[in-house]
């Protein structure tokens, strides 16, 4: 997962891709990234030059029609039950967010756990529609999601700016200064006055106090590094129009 190996000097990625170029090397590197043009976006020339002989394979985002059959094919009884109960429900929810099949697995796993907890209190039963619905509501109604929905307009715009920067860079970490450029552009779109640097830092501090962000403890202000404390899918779901 190249996104997680990125460092400022990029020594890790350089060494990794340099190994196959060594004389008599029989090493083959398979690297995965969430961004199609990651080499052009973040790699230094000395690192990108190691990829000259490489080939790239692009994977499209899965839609509902592909997510459900793949999940049903997995050797898990709970997936088979849930997929037969409501394939369109959880397939559509996942496809609408990111097409990540792991989200289906999480929903199915949680639905099974809810069923087993209920089984301890009542007569034995199988996973039903009610368990799946409860799992979906629980997953997409976490305290973090509710906190984002109840945040101020400028705080929500700041979170959108973070997502925009992560998408641009292909790395799930950014400085406040990098986020600020997207923030100003989003304010123009919304017809809002751009905030001052002190106001931006205050917004960042509030989101950090709510644990929605992980903010580097530093006095570098605009050069402080910021990460999300929840998945990008959850942030996008919380910021969607009702």
From TrEMBL:
It comes from the Eukaryota. GO terms for molecular function: ATP binding; DNA replication origin binding; metal ion binding. SMART domains: Cdc6_C. The keyword Membrane does not apply. Its main location: nucleus. It is found in: Nucleus. Keywords: ATP-binding, DNA replication, DNA-binding, Metal-binding, Nucleotide-binding, Nucleus. GO terms for cellular component: nuclear origin of replication recognition complex. Residues 159-239 form the Cdc6 C-terminal domain. One of its GO terms (biological process) is DNA replication initiation. CDD domains: Cdc6_C (cd08768). Belongs to the CDC6/cdc18 family. PANTHER family: CELL DIVISION CONTROL PROTEIN 6-RELATED (PTHR10763), ORIGIN RECOGNITION COMPLEX SUBUNIT 1 (PTHR10763:SF23). Component of the origin recognition complex (ORC) that binds origins of replication. DNA-binding is ATP-dependent, however specific DNA sequences that define origins of replication have not been identified so far. ORC is required to assemble the pre-replication complex necessary to initiate DNA replication. This is Origin recognition complex subunit 1. It comes from Rhodinocichla rosea. The lineage of its organism: Eukaryota, Metazoa, Chordata, Craniata, Vertebrata.
């Amino acid at each position: 997962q190249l996104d997680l190996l990125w460092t400022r000097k990029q020594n890790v990625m350089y060494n990794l891709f340099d190994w196959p170029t060594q004389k008599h090397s029989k090493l083959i590197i398979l690297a995965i990234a969430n961004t199609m043009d990651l080499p052009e976006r973040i790699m230094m020339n000395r690192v990108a030059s190691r990829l000259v002989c490489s080939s790239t394979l692009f994977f499209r985002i899965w839609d509902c029609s592909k997510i459900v059959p793949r999940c049903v094919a997995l050797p898990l009884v709970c997936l088979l039950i849930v997929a037969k109960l409501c394939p369109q429900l959880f397939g559509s929810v996942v496809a609408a967010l990111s097409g990540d099949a792991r989200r289906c697995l999480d929903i199915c796993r949680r639905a099974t756990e809810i069923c087993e907890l209920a089984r301890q209190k009542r007569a034995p039963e199988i996973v039903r529609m009610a368990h799946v619905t409860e799992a979906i509501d629980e997953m997409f109604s976490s305290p973090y999601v509710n906190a984002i929905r109840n945040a101020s307009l400028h705080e929500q715009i700041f979170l959108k700016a973070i997502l925009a920067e992560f998408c641009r860079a292909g790395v799930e970490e950014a400085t406040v200064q990098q986020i600020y450029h997207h923030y100003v552009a989003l304010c123009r779109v919304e017809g809002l006055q751009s905030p001052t640097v002190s106001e931006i830092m205050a917004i960042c501090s509030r989101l950090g106090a709510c644990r929605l962000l992980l903010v580097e403890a530093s006095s570098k202000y605009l050069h402080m590094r910021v990460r999300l404390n929840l998945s990008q899918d959850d942030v996008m779901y919380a910021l969607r129009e009702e």
